[in-house]
């Protein structure tokens, strides 16, 4: 029994340390996977890729290499979805449902990025092009507010639907955005793929 426990522990550690390493990454850096509850959000092989970290789906941003500070200054990530249809258009939404904190999300949802008319071809390459309705805002959880979820949802855009845009009220602020109303209004339906990662303010332990 003790031997079995040791083997299981070694396997878990290997997954945590090497499961999401980029080619140039420090192999002592721990890439901790999300809890089972939070991991349920990740579906459909949507790849969110940042410099140095690499693919960041369904993990906590590691503390090592100042990643939690760096991710707040990096530009928008590469988004890759290999199952995209080249003749279709897509909509990408990035939100923080935990603004200002997961225990008190009075500003849910905080809109970090919104892109419409994304070509399927560009999703296959990872360098998306489309109509950016809300410019990218990097993850910036306030101090002492715990871990925040940063959620990415990719939708297939209706071919003959309404022109996707934001109201003047929505454009005026990012917070307290009704993502459900937006999805319903433009008949986006269920996302074809979703992903998320968690991080907290880099000064918090």
The whole-number mean of residue pLDDT values reads 89
Q: State the shape.
A: globular
Terminus-to-terminus distance: 35 Å
- Looking at the structure, the CATH topology is Phosphatidylethanolamine-binding Protein
CATH class: Alpha Beta
Number of strands: 8
Beta-strand content bin: 15-25%
Q: What are the SSEs and their pairings?
A:
Elements lengths: L1 H17 L17 H4 L7 E4 L3 E2 L11 H4 L7 E3 L8 E8 L13 E10 H6 L5 E4 L13 E9 L11 H5 L6 H7 L7 E7 L6
Antiparallel strand pairs: 1-2, 1-3, 4-5, 4-7, 5-6, 7-8
Question: Can you tell me about this structure?
Answer:
The model is unreliable at 1-25 (pLDDT under 50). The strands form two sheets. A five-stranded antiparallel sheet has the order 6-5-4-7-8. Strands 2-1-3 form a three-stranded antiparallel sheet. The protein has helices at 2-18, 36-39, 67-70, 120-125, 168-172, 179-185, and strands at residues 47-50, 54-55, 78-80, 89-96, 110-119, 131-134, 148-156, 193-199. The longest helix is centred in the first third of the chain and has 17 residues, at 2-18. It is an alpha+beta fold and 205 residues long. The protein is globular and about 50 Å long. The chain has a single domain, classed as Phosphatidylethanolamine-binding Protein. It contains six helices and eight strands, in the order H-H-E-E-H-E-E-E-H-E-E-H-H-E.
